[in-house]
């Protein structure tokens, strides 16, 4: 089982979540976040914005689904410009449903 965290431009969040849902990946968490990447913020005129608004999508998926999920997220969020986002994948040792106590996704 893997945890996929994608940090995206907020304007692409709905397109990404719709694409994931169409492929059968409904379970996810969306969080509004602020941060900066390699571009170190953005300068508009005389004003420098050190941190930019982004959305983080977090979801646990089975190992065999990781490549498909990454492909969907990357395809839907891609503009070709700096700041499109980043995807992180980590191993999940276990998951439990609180209401039932059931182990697994």
From TrEMBL:
Coiled coil: none
Database matches in PROSITE patterns: PII_GLNB_CTER, PII_GLNB_DOM
Pfam entry (one): P-II
Superkingdom to which the source organism belongs: Archaea
Gene3D superfamilies for the chain: 3.30.70.120
An annotated Gene Ontology molecular function: ATP binding
UniProt-listed GO biological process terms: regulation of nitrogen utilization
Keywords: Nitrogen fixation, Transcription, Transcription regulation
Protein family: Belongs to the P(II) protein family.
Protein name per its UniProtKB record: Nitrogen regulatory protein P-II
């Amino acid at each position: 089982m893997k945890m996929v965290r994608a940090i995206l431009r907020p304007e692409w969040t709905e397109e990404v979540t719709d694409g994931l849902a169409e492929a059968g990946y409904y379970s996810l968490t969306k969080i509004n976040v602020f941060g900066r990447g390699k571009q170190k913020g953005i300068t508009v005129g005389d004003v420098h914005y050190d941190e930019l608004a982004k959305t983080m999508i977090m979801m646990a998926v089975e190992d065999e689904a990781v490549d498909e999920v990454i492909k969907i997220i990357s395809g839907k969020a891609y503009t070709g410009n700096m700041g499109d986002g980043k995807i992180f994948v980590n191993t999940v040792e276990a998951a439990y449903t609180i209401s039932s106590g059931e182990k697994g996704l």
